[in-house]
Design a protein that fits this description.
InterPro entries: Acyl_CoA_acyltransferase (IPR016181), GNAT_dom (IPR000182). One of its GO terms (molecular function) is acyltransferase activity, transferring groups other than amino-acyl groups. This is N-acetyltransferase domain-containing protein. Pfam families: Acetyltransf_1 (PF00583). Strands 1-2-3-4 form a 4-stranded antiparallel sheet, with helices on both faces. Strands 5-7-6 form a 3-stranded antiparallel sheet, with helices on one face. The protein starts with 7 loop residues before the first strand and ends with a strand. It is of the alpha+beta class. The mean pLDDT is 94. The protein is built from 5 helices and 7 strands. The chain has a single domain, classed as Gcn5-related N-acetyltransferase (GNAT) (Aminopeptidase, 3-Layer(aba) Sandwich). Helix content is 26%, strand content 23%.
Length: 164
């Protein structure tokens, strides 16, 4: 019998934003080792995902079990001057989600994403965007939570969620 505690979700703060480097590396390497930590930090198109700035409106949540971070979901306002892969408009935060490999397929990613969607709604954001590569099974999660492909950006894997 599995007696592990249910993981806790709490707000992401600048003090624990260091996990975003690990998470971004994991997201970029979802299908195998393609990038190193050095690659992530050296490429500004990727490195901005490791920066958490609540002053520009960024928000997010981490999931922990026994004080160990096992997942994180965050939304960033990268903007037209420094767009992310899933950029659609300056006022639309872009979502990133990562769950540790050993905890995938357990519903933890869904819990994190749902918490992020709820927070986004409570902040008055009518939309969220993201980008997910073809073949990544996270696409099924995003679709099941209401994200739809952005017309003309399907090849880039850009998806958009609107407040229901």
């Amino acid at each position: 019998m599995n007696l592990e505690k249910t993981p806790a979700i709490r707000p992401l703060t600048p003090e624990n934003a260091g996990i975003l480097g690990v998470a971004t590396l994991g997201n970029m390497n979802w299908c195998g080792e393609r990038f190193t930590c050095e690659d992530i930090q050296a490429d500004p198109v990727i490195a901005h995902y490791t920066v958490f700035d609540p002053e520009r409106g960024d928000f997010g949540f981490i999931m922990t079990r026994d004080s160990v971070i096992i997942g994180v979901a965050w939304a960033q306002f990268l903007g037209r001057g420094d767009p992310g892969y899933g950029f659609v408009d300056d006022g639309v935060p872009e979502v990133s989600l990562w769950v540790s490999p050993e905890d995938r397929g357990t519903g933890h990613g869904r819990r994190l994403l749902q918490r992020l969607l709820l927070e986004s709604s409570s902040r008055g954001h009518g939309r969220l965007s993201l980008s997910v590569e073809s073949g990544n099974r996270a696409r099924d999660l995003y679709t099941s939570e209401g994200f739809v492909p952005v017309p003309g950006r399907e090849q880039d894997g850009v998806m958009l969620w609107r407040v229901p």
